[in-house]
Amino acid sequence: MKKSIVVIPTYNPDQKFIPYVEELIAAGIATIIIVDDGSSEETQHIFRNIEAVPACTLLVHETNRGKGAGLKTAFRHIQATFVEETAIVTADADGQHAVQDVVRLLEELKKEAHGIVLGVRDFDLEHVPRKNAFGNKLTSRVFKWLFGTYISDTQTGLRGFHSLDIPWLVAIKGERFEYEMNMLMVAVHDDMQLVEVPIQTLYFGEERVTHYKTFRDSGRIAKQLFVGLTMKKKLVEHN
After folding, report:
1. CA distance 199 to 118
2. CA proximity to 176, closest of 211, 142, 148, 146
3. DSSP per-residue string spanning 27-77
């Protein structure tokens, strides 16, 4: 059976992050890689508590480099540390991804020999903020118009990968939120299998800790969509 790893990049998490990690461990996840992306001194007690847990590995960026950089740091660590084939799920630190859904993606990965598994939300539910629903639906439609493939949740952070795909994942350009969109564009260019798994759609209002800047990061993503349409090589680092 494939080894299972959960990757969580985080920047200035709140106190609820610790019980979330504990829930993942209680659900049977034996390896969790957490990337501290240059968090403030005020949050270091959270990381010290987590680092003391045997199931957790803490990787640290001295300065804030962005979500994409955090994911690639974790992928490189997995590549250098684990010899056996591994199922990898990336999750957000803000509690938006239910533990049951993380486990579902890991189970789905073990059924699929290739490709990417996406945990997709339902933006038609009444409790979803209008601006979130509108932005996500619009991005999905633009993606379909540009690339011919409809992805119902292009901005989901709950994604599953096979460790054999790590060389491909770390070659994709992008250090911040645009990295995840670049990943989808390259996957479509390369005809990779994309499997969608419905997940819970969780929003916590003002209590949610998020570092997604609506206008700045949406603009960066929109720009990347058009870059991806014109030239795939701009999305991939070449050694």
Report:
1. 9
2. 211
3. TT---EEEEEES--GGGHHHHHHHHTSTTEEEEEESS---HHHHHHHHHHH
For the domain spanning 3-235, the CATH number is: 3.90.550.10
Taking the C-alpha atoms of residue 73 and residue 184, their distance in angstroms, rounded to an integer, is 19
Could you tell me if 186 and 232 are in contact, meaning their C-beta atoms sit under 8 angstroms apart? yes
What are the residue ranges spanned by the domains of the chain? 3-235
- The β-bridge relationship of strands 194-198 and 116-120 is parallel
Whole-structure pTM over 0.90, yes or no? no
Report CA dihedral (53, 25, 55, 113) to the nearest 10 degrees: -160
What are the pLDDT tens digits along the chain (239 aa)?
A: 578 999 999 999 999 999 999 999 999 999 999 999 999 999 999 999 999 999 999 999 999 999 999 999 999 999 999 989 899 999 999 888 999 999 999 999 988 778 999 999 987 677 777 777 777 888 888 889 888 999 999 999 999 999 999 999 999 998 988 899 999 999 999 999 999 999 998 876 544 444 445 555 556 666 666 666 665 556 677 55
